Amino acid sequence: MWKLILVVVIAFGFSVSVKGQETVTVTNDSANFTSQEMVDKANEYYKKKEYDQSVIWFRKAADMGNAESICRLGYMYSMGYGVPLDYYEGVRLTRIAADKGFPKAEYNMAYFYGVGQGVDVSMKKTVKWYKKSARHDYPDAQADLGSLYYEGKGVGQNYSKARKLFEKAAEEGIHEAQCNLAHLYFEGLGVGQDYSKAMSWYMRGADQGCPEAQFQIGKMFENGYSVDSNKEQAILWYKKSASQNYNDAIERLKLLE
To answer: Which residues, 6 or more positions from 74, have their beta carbon under 8 angstroms from its beta carbon?
Structure first.
C-alpha cells in the first residue's frame, strides 16, 4: 500500500511594529538600499547563521512594507532565530504578510492552523489558506491541498482536483507531488490507469531522492508493472530507498536477499 506524502513544512521564504522592539529607523549605512536589497542582505546573514544581523535587515525591509521580509520575520520568531521564540508573534507577522497576498506567508498560515502553532487548530482555516496560496501558484500549497482533496480531509474527496493540483506542483519539481501523482496513475484514481505514466512520475521523484518513489519503482520492477519483471533492479531500487531508512524497503529487502 502506498503512502500519501504531504509537504507540510513551514516556508522560509507600511511600518511593522515588532513585539519587544523599537521600530527600526533606516540609518545612513542602509539609506541607499531598496527593500529587496535589504532582504538579500538579510538572507546573506541568514545563510551564515548570523541570525541577529539577519533580523536587523529583515526589520528594515519590513518597515518599508516588504511582504517577504515580514513573512521572514514571522518565521524567525516561530523558530527563535535571532529573537526570542514566540509563536504568537510569528503568527501575527505572518498574517500581515499573508493579508498582503504573499504566497509563502499564506502557506505558513495554513501550517499554523494545521498544527495549532500559535493558534487553535482549524481544518477550515487550513484549507482556506492553502487555497489562497495555491491560487498564487505556490507549489508546496498546491501539493498539500491536493493531498487534502485525495483524502477528503477538510474538503470533499475529489481525485480529479487532487490530480490537477499534483500536476501543477509536480511540474515545479515538488517530489511529494510527483510521487502522489504517480500513485493516482498507478491506481487509476481521477485519471485512467497508466503504469507507464506512473513509472515516469516515480522516476522523477526518485531522481530527487524521494525514498517512497524509489520503493515504488522497486515494486514495479519486482512485479513487472510497465517493465519486465527484474529482481536485480527491484533490489537496487529497494536499497536506494532503504539507505534513507524507508522501513517498507528495508522489510522487502529482508525477503528478497
So the answer is: 89, 90, 91, 92, 93, 94, 95, 96, 97, 105, 108
